[in-house]
Every structure is written in C-alpha cells, then in structure tokens.
Amino acid sequence: MSTPTKSIQVTLKNPPTEFINPNFGESNSTFAIKEQEIPDLKDGEILIKTRLISNDPTQRGWIRRKGSKRYYVDPIEIGNPMESLAIGEVLESKSTTYKKGDLINGKFYWADFAIVNESQIFNKIDQSLGLPLEYYLSVFGMTSLTALFGLTEAGGLKKYLGDEKPKDLTVLVSAASGATGSVVVQIAKHLLGATKVLGISGSDEKCKWVESLGADKCFNYKDSNYQNQISEYLGDSLVNVYFDNVGGEISNFALTKMAKFGTVISCGSISTYNSSTPPSITNWGEITVNSLSVNGFIVFDYFAKFQEGVQILSNAVKEGKIKVTNAYHVDSLEGNDEIAKFEQIPKIWTQLFNDNKPNGKLITKVA
Ligand code: NAP
Fold first, then answer.
1. By CB count within 10 A, which of 119, 178, 278, 318 is most buried?
2. Ligand 1 centroid vs 269 CA: distance in angstroms?
3. Any bridge partners for residue 36, and if so which?
4. Residues 79 and 165 in one domain
C-alpha cells in the first residue's frame, strides 16, 4: 500500500467522573474523532497500521480527571488520542530494531495509523509460528500474564508450578468469565493443582463456561442469593486465595469467607471504576482477625519476566491445560465510512462494563 498521509484518531474530549458516554457529538461525549496529517518520521520512530486493539478496564483509569486519584500512569491529556494496548504492522521505519512488515505488540492508539516510538513497543511477533494474531492479545497477552503473575508472584503460589502440589487449596476468583479470570481458573486448577476452584460471574451461561474451563463451581452474582449459595457450597471450609478482579460488595463478602493466613490478590476493582463514590471495604477487620495478606500488583511489575511467562503459558496451551477455543471474542469495525467505523471503538470497549461483555478477551479488529 502507498504511505498514508492522514490518520483517523479517537481522542479524549471529556474525562468522565462516572460512566463513559461512548456516543460522539454530544456535549458530554467522552471522546471526539479527528483526522490528522501524518508528519515525517524522525529517527527511532515507526509508522504503524493498527491491526488489533485490546479492550482493557484499566483504560478507564487512563482517562480519569487530572488530580482525581493516584494511578500507575499519568492521565491522557484532553485532545490526545486514546491509548490502547494493540498490535500494529510496521509500514515505515526509522528504527534499527523494527522493519517494514514486522508485527509489533505495544501501547499504541485508537487510530488507523500512528507514529510510535520504540519505547512504546513490548515485542515483535514471531510470524514464523503461524499463530492467529489474536493469541498475542489473549492467551499469550497481558491479561493471561496478569493471571499467571497474580497467582504465582502476588499470590505466592509459584512453588506449585513444579511437581509439588497443594494438599488443600481453595481459590476463589471474581469476574471469572473475563480475560483474566478465565485464565486464573485454568492456571489454578490445571497448572497449580488447586483442590477447589470457585468462580463468580454475571450470568448462569457464563458460569457454565467457567465450569467447563475447570472450576468446581461458579456462582452468578446477579442472583440475589449468590452469597448464601457460596456459603452453603463451602460448608465448613474456607477460601485460601481470593483473586479479586471486581472490588466492592463481592470483595466485602469474599473477605468473610477467607481462611486464617489466607491471601487476597488485589488485581482490580472493576465494579468501582465508573463510580465517583467507590464503595468502601466494610469488612476490613476480617484482614486483622484472620491474619490475611492483601497483595496488590500491576502486571508490569513483572515486565522482566514476561518472556518466561509467555513460555509457561505456551507450554500450558500445548499440554491442553489452557484452552484457546473461545479464549477471545473479536468485534470488527463495520462499514465503508471510515469515520463511522472508528466511532464504534468506544462502544465496543464499554462492553467491559456492562452485561454484553462476551466471554474471554474482547478484541477489536481494525484491519
Ligand atoms: P474482563 O474480565 O475481560 O472484562 C471485565 C469483566 O468485569 C466482565 O467480564 C464483567 O464480568 C466484570 N464486571 C464488570 N462490571 C462488574 C461489576 N460491576 N461487578 C462485577 N463484575 C463486573 O476484563 P479483564 O481485562 O480481564 O480485567 C479484569 C480485572 O482485572 C479488572 O478489574 C482489571 O482492571 C484487572 N486487571 C488488572 C491488571 C493488573 O495489572 N493489576 C491487569 C489486567 C487486568 P460479568 O460479565 O461476569 O459481570
């Protein structure tokens, strides 16, 4: 293809305090759309064509209002393109590491074309393996690494990756049908040998899928009786490790089910991301009286171990311990009008926060 001279970008218009407005052209629209000239490349820069976009709840934190709360990255400036983990194809390069035709994984933009710096790139995809590109944002992507390092590093369960297996280990995971949660279920059950794995998810259908991945039981939190159901299922037993993806009421309840010296892996709190008044943890005392450890983490804390992590995940896939079928869902941008196509991106992303979220990793196909 000839070198593009313009790019379409979805930019930040109104940093939201509560729910995102994914529609365009309204006074409180979260995003705007613009066409932009593509400048000449400078040394170390690369022109990419965006192929796949990763949809991640953490992007909600990237568009928070300035000064609203501490976070692990600075907020995106108003008028700048929305950032996203993504896979791009190199069209032109002034980098000594990446060349035309390479497929690269990194932190890029909601845009058709973009100029990126080498520092934004995580790795080059080995195209000789012939694997679907979607695998690199799902089974071998950031959310699977989050599941792995959350359990093994933050959760202290690394010792069970080898021959030693636990005699009695109950793991509970929330958002269990999601990209991270579904891999937590499989790693806990099939790699670490947890004796019991329990999931919490948002529908009976999702729960069936979670159980098909290896969970002993999954509970639908939209059922008003789910807490009693979990208590009845556990009987006298308790949870040793809670992998917390949601925060809020579910986590408050989970704290009351923790065993003495149990561990809470604080991965995320999606139930609070769109709220200006996040619910408080009313059962904080459970941490003290049960000598619990609460270990927060950001997957990039383990960046130096990513290659090792991908190796563990790919071995697990080869051995059938992590399933690739239904591990991801792809939404493609539809239509011939390029602007209208890019207006679909925020709507796809907001599925993460509503009932329409498909199982596994949600990916947007741009080209
Ligand atoms: P995901 O699970 O694929 O999608 C989000 C899920 O959240 C949906 O499947 C939905 O499940 C659930 N959800 C949405 N609103 C909810 C609510 N109000 N109450 C309960 N559940 C709700 O997304 P993901 O990328 O794997 O992220 C999952 C969590 O991990 C997020 O909190 C995210 O921030 C966190 N995370 C953290 C790191 C890190 O480095 N610490 C890295 C990646 C992800 P249902 O359909 O079952 O409601």
1. 178
2. 7
3. 7
4. no
Do 101 and 165 belong together in one domain?
no
Which has the minimum average pLDDT: 42-56, 227-241, 268-282? 268-282
pLDDT grade for 277, boundaries at 50, 70 and 90: confident
Determine contact, residues 151/157, Cβ cutoff 8 Å: yes
Ligand 1: does its nearest atom lie under 6 Å from the Cβ of 246?
Answer: yes
Is residue 223 classed as helix, strand or coil in its secondary structure? coil
Whether 352 and 294 share a structural domain: no
Alpha-carbon dihedral sign for residues 190, 260, 292, 164: negative
Which residue from 252, 255, 228 is spatially nearest to 241, judged by alpha carbons?
255
Does residue 37 sit in the same domain as residue 150?
A: no
Probe target for ligand 1 pocket from 242, 246, 300, 303, with the most ligand atoms within 8 Å of CB:
246
Whether the model clears a pTM of 0.90, i.e. scores above it, the answer is yes
Residue nearest to atom 10 of ligand 1 (CA): 175
Determine if ligand 1 sits within 6 Å of the CB of residue 245: yes
Give the integer Cα–Cα distance in Å for 207 and 256. Answer: 22
What confidence tier does 276 reach under pLDDT thresholds 50, 70, 90?
confident
**Ligand 1 neighbourhood includes 202 CB (under 6 angstroms):** yes
Query: What is the per-residue pLDDT across 287-328, written as a single tens digit (0 to 9) for each?
Result: 999 999 999 999 999 999 999 999 999 999 999 999 999 999
Q: Give me ligand 1 centre to Cα 143, in Å.
A: 10
Buried b (16+ CB within 10 A) or exposed e, 24-45: beeeebbbebeeeebeebeeeb
Range of the domain at 108: 6-135+327-365
- Pair (171, 291) in one structural domain: yes
146 Cα: distance to centroid of ligand 1 (angstroms)? 12
pLDDT digits 0-9 by tens, 143-157 = 999 999 999 999 999
Q: 1: CA distance to ligand 1 center in Å? A: 38
CATH code where residue 343 lies: 3.90.180.10
**CB distance 53 to 84 below 8 Å:** yes
Domain-embedded: residue 112: yes
Same domain, 146 and 293: yes
What is the arithmetic mean of pLDDT over 188-212?
98
Domain count across the chain: 2
Q: Whose CA is nearest to atom 46 of ligand 1?
A: 202
CB of 181 shorter than 6 A to ligand 1: yes
Together in a domain, 158 and 242: yes
